[in-house]
Amino acid sequence: MHFLERQTLEAITAGQLLPAQESTLVLAVSGGPDSVGLLHVMAALRGKLGLDPVAVYVNHGLRPNEVQNEQRLVADLAQSLALRYISVSIDVRTFARQEKMSLEHAARDLRYEALREVASGFESAPIAVAHTADDQAEEILIRLIRGGGRKALSGMRRRNKDIIRPFLSIRKSDILQYLQEKKAAFCHDSSNSDMRFLRNRVRHRLLPYLEENFDSGIRGALCKTADTLAEDEALLDEMSERCLADVVVGAMSRTHEMSQQLVLDRRKLAAAPAALQRRVVEKLLWQIGGRAAYTHIVRIIAAAKSGRAGTEHHLSRGLRLGVQKQYLELQFPRGKGPWRGRLYSE
Q1: Fewest CB atoms within 10 Å of the CB: 109, 122, 148, 336?
Q2: To the nearest 10°, the Cα dihedral for 12, 185, 43, 175?
Q3: Could you give the C-alpha distances from 171 to 7, 167, 267, in angstroms and in order?
Q4: 3-state SS class at 321
Q5: Is 258's pLDDT higher than 50?
C-alpha cells in the first residue's frame, strides 16, 4: 500500500470519519490534483473500507472553456477505476447576484448544496472533499484577516456532519508526488491564478512571503494552532449547548403570519461568561434563520444587560429583537423581509 493511501486510511479510521456500515461515499472531484488524488486513493481503499465511491463533478458555469476537458477527465478516470460518475451544473453568477455575495461564497454554497442533493439519492451518503493541510493553513490566514474568533481560527474540521476531509493533514506536495508516481493526469483551474480572489492572494503571495521572511514552517504551525483551537472549541461548544438550553425560555408562534419566536431569559444570558454569550447568541440567530453578524450578536448581548423594557431593535431582513423587563423576544414578525411598524404599541 502506498504511503499516501496508508496515511489516508489511518486518518479515516482513527478519526472515525465514516459512519458505521456506510456503503456509498460521494466524492467531490473537480479534476484538479487534490480531488483526482482523493479519487485514486479512495478507489484503492474501497475494499478495506467497504465503500462504493461515486465521483461527482460540479460545473459552476464560470469557466466554459475548461469545463469540457475537466468533465471528460473525471468521467474517464471514474470509468477506468470502475466507479460511478455524476455531473451536475449550478448557476453561480445568478445566485451571487441575487444573494448579493461574492462569487467565491456563492460557488461554495451552491457546490455543497449540489453535492448534498446527489448524496440524498444515496440515502444521504457522506461527502468527501479534498481539502489539504495547505488549504487549512490558507483558511486560517483568511479567517484571521477577516477578523474571525476562536471558532473561525480552529479551521476546517476533518468531519463536519455529512462532510469529511480525509486529506486535511496531508500536504499538497505529497499528493502531487503520488499522482506523478501513478502517472495520473489532472487539470489546472485557471481561476486559481486570479488575484482578484483573496484565497489566491493568500496562497501565491502572503504564505510564500511568510515562509521566506519569517518561518519556513508557517503552514505546519498554522495547522497545529487550528488543531489546538478545535479541541478547545469542542469543549466550549458543549458548554454553549448547556447554556443555550438554560437561556431559552421557549419557542412559540403568534398571529399575523409570525414565524418562530424565541424567548430568552435576560438575566441568565447576561450572567453567562462572555465567551458563552457570544456562542449562544450566534446559535440562536442561525436557529431562527437570521444572519449571525458580529454587530447583531453584540446588540443582543447589550440588550440583555441594559436594554430598556418596551424597546426593540431592527437586525436584518425583518428580524426584530424585542426587549422586556425579564425577557428578550427574537422573531420575524412579518417573515423574512423589511417592514415598518413596531412590535409593541406605544
Answers
A1: 336
A2: -20
A3: 11, 8, 48
A4: strand
A5: no
Compute φ and ψ for 52, nearest 5 degrees.
Answer: -120, 90
- Cell (9 digits) for 342: 413596531
| Distant-in-sequence contacts of 190-195, Cβ < 8 A, 24+ apart | 190/63, 190/66, 191/62, 191/63, 192/32
Task: Give the torsion through C-alpha atoms of 133, 138, 142, 147, to 10 deg.
Answer: 50
Q: Is 173 exposed, middle or buried (0-12, 13-18, 19+ CB in 10 A)?
A: exposed
Instruction: Tell me the pTM.
Output: 0.80
Please report where in the chains the cell 462504493 appears, as a residue. Answer: 52
Grid cell 489546538 is found at 228
Cα angle, residue 343 at apex, residues 337 and 345 outer, rounded to 5°: 140
Residue-wise pLDDT for 30-84, tens only, equals 999 999 999 999 999 999 999 999 999 999 988 888 999 999 999 999 999 999 9
* DSSP strands (E only) in the chain: 24-28, 52-59, 84-89, 127-128, 159-160, 163-164, 248-252, 261-265, 312-314, 320-323, 327-331
- The SS3 assignment for 252 reads strand
Angle at which helix 218-247 crosses helix 274-288, to 10 degrees, equals 80
Percent of the chain whose predicted confidence (pLDDT) is above 90: 73
- Tens-place pLDDT, residues 161-194: 899 999 999 999 999 999 999 999 999 988 888 8
Q: What is the set of domains in the chain, with CATH numbers? A: 3-230 (3.40.50.620), 253-331 (3.30.465.60)
User: What pLDDT band is residue 346 in, cutting at 50, 70 and 90?
Assistant: low
CA–CA gap between residue 64 and residue 145 (Å, rounded): 32
